[in-house]
Amino acid sequence: MDIRILELIEGARKAQGFTVIIDVFRAFTTECYAFAGGAEASYPIGSLEDAFALKAEHPDWILLGERGGAKVEGCDLGNSPYDVTQTDFRGKTMIHSTSAGTQGIVAAAAAGATEIVTGSLVNAKAVTDYIRSKDPDTVSIVAMGKAGLTSTNEDLICAQYMASLLKDEDYDIRGKIAWLKDHGGEQFFDPALIDIFPREDYPLCVDYDRFPFVLKVRREGRENGQPERLVIRKTAVKV
Q: Is the distance from CB of 148 to CB of 66 less than 8 angstroms?
């Protein structure tokens, strides 16, 4: 198994084979909590214009939108896992547009990745267990970073942790998370940013290996005569 750690939008565009798009703070952590709360599907959308257009077609769907960390005006929610835990997602469909994570999905899909799943610390082991079950020749693990343009410690830690699990190598994930609090997680403890980065988000984001499922990206719609779209659905992992 050839395991490659890539970064940012540029890395997503180079993804080959089985691809993991990582966004720990906070897109794919947020989605894990939404699916754990009963969500049925999520549509990852690159542009806000397209996201609002899809919301207009389906007003009962929950629109999550973030740019620069902040909730986009007109969206139902931003990108906070804590806010998601305070919302009833049972049987709901999401529309999700963020500055990093969902952009990576769109880029990797356009690049021709053979299979795409999302990645975060909260389901890291489930992702690697799923990869093992598929036994692909090539695995691209993409750490999306800040806005897909700048490296971030949390996404690289998650990528390295996943790679270590796949290689059966030791990795001090607890030590890395303790270090991360002051080397990437500071915004969650800054009183000036509390409206954008709630303090409650941080422990939810770093609760590693919490969920036993993966969030798999599929293409759907063509068989029903609808426009083909990327959609994320939960897949249980059997170990």
A: no
- Dihedrals φ, ψ of 142, to 5°? -110, 115
Alpha carbon distances (Å) from 198 to 64, 73, 208, 224: 16, 18, 19, 41
Average pLDDT of the segment spanning 7-35: 98
Q: What is the mean pLDDT of residues 98-118?
A: 95
- pTM reported for the whole predicted model: 0.96
Point out which residues pair with 230 in neighbouring strands: 219
Coil, helix or strand at residue 10: helix
Domains of the chain (ranges, CATH numbers):
2-236 (3.90.1560.10)
Torsion angle of C-alpha atoms 97, 212, 142, 108, degrees rounded to 10 = -60
- Look up residue 129 and give its two tokens: 């267990």
What local confidence, expressed as pLDDT, does residue 228 receive? 86
Do residues 128 and 167 lie in contact, with contact meaning Cβ atoms separated by under 8 Å? no
Say if residues 213 and 189 touch (Cβ distance below 8 Å): no
Q: What local confidence, expressed as pLDDT, does residue 223 receive?
A: 61
Q: Residue length, the chain?
A: 239
- The tally of CA atoms less than 13 A away on the side-chain side of residue 86 is 11
DSSP assignment of 87-109 equals: S--TT-EEEEE-SSHHHHHHHHH
Q: Give me the amino acid identity at 119.
A: G
Question: How many angstroms separate the CA atoms of 213 and 210, rounded?
Answer: 9
Per-residue pLDDT reduced to its tens digit, 135-156: 999 999 999 999 999 999 999 9
The residue with tokens 């703070």 is 25
